[in-house]
Amino acid sequence: MKLSDFSVNRPITTLVIYIGIIVLGMFSLSKLAIDLIPDISYPMIVIFSDYPGASPQEVEENLTKVIENAAALSSNVKKITSTSHEGHTMVTVEYEWGTDMSAAAADLREKLDLVRDYLPDDATQPIILKFDPSLIPIMIVTVEGQRDLKSLRYIADHNIKTNLEQIDGVATVDVYGGKKRQIHVDLDKKLIDSFGITINQVVGILRAENVNISGGEMVEGNKSYTLRTIGKFKSIEEIKRIVVASKNGIPVYLGDVARVYDGFVEKNTYARVGMKDSVIMTIQKQSGTNTVQVAKLVEKRINLLRRELPQDIKIVKFYSSADFIKKSINNVWQVAIMGGVFAIFVLLIFLRNIPTTLVIGVSIPLSVITTFIFMYLFKLTLNMMSLGGLALGIGMLVDNSIVVLENIFRYREFGAKPFEAAKLGSQEMSNAIVASTLT
Known about the structure:
Elements: H1 3-9, H2 11-31, E1 44-50, H3 56-72, E2 77-85, E3 88-95, H4 101-114, E4 127-130, E5 139-144, H5 149-164, E6 170-177, E7 181-187, H6 189-194, H7 199-209, E8 213-220, E9 223-229, H8 236-240, E10 243-247, E11 250-253, H9 254-257, E12 258-264, E13 272-273, E14 276-277, E15 279-285, H10 291-308, E16 314-320, H11 321-351, H12 354-377, H13 384-413, H14 418-438
Antiparallel strand pairs: 1-3, 1-4, 2-3, 5-15, 5-16, 6-15, 7-12, 8-9, 10-11, 13-14
Helix pairs in contact: 1-14, 2-12, 10-11, 11-12, 11-13, 12-13, 13-14
């Protein structure tokens, strides 16, 4: 039995099917993820490497060309571009669309390992980064309060950041601005030379001393104890008492050859809001997660933190891509709905037949709702492109509906009964409509 015959011969069953489609469609719509654009994996990898103290020409000859030659050996490479600066290089490798970027990154890493001995000794190990739109922060917040920048930075690092990074879908949370505590050790060049100490020796001693080491287990009777050797520094005085050398059997302490004091990390980035130094936090989502859903979870956690933190500490949302996405999607929705209403209004003017116009008017929302079911099943998102496609499909749907109805009316003019005209008119145009729509 053909679809047109089934619809006409069994109206109750058809109505039940339509109601089921509407229910499933509305359920699917409520579960659909919202994003600005589809999740696209760009076939691009960027390689960074530093060559301290080298001129752009030296970087180009000794570093950039070696990396380019190694990258050229990878499969499916479409284009390689590079930029050499003073002290560092950036090489961009573009691949053919459809390339498995995880496999490409692994292959590229292997090629770079093969030429590691050909790179300058002072050059750093090349860093490979896959281009991913998810690296763009989905939200930026500021931490404000009646406190100095040191306290605000500490709260952002130890209270807020650790909380936000626990959220499902959040990749990283970066903190900028404020003052981050750092212990400074200023060595006296003359004194360390007199004791035969080098800067690298002092660095190595500090690194070796500032660790906590597992001490294994100790069993006493039916009890087992885990042992730890605590070595991390807890105060500046502990650092000053580190032995860095020995002369005539007398230990030389770090405090004897250096000035050790509490300070801050040297700023290489500045964070300001309204020309005022501030503490800013950027939140990045994991690749493949939905921006709006992750942003909603982040805002929920921020509201909880506002109640837990001291009253003078404020977390202010500075930017959220989710707000822009929702606004853009709502605008597209409004345009699509207005377009559908306007199309029905134009049809009513030209057809001058209310039942015919209602048939077309009902087919528009029913077809759109059916689309939501398949979007949910295939895990597609509501975005600018998918909604744009729906808006385009509405126009084609109206055209097809008019063609079928005109053919049904033609059979009615020939004297066919309503049910017979509906069957014959639909069957005759079905193949032509499917072919025209697919093309």
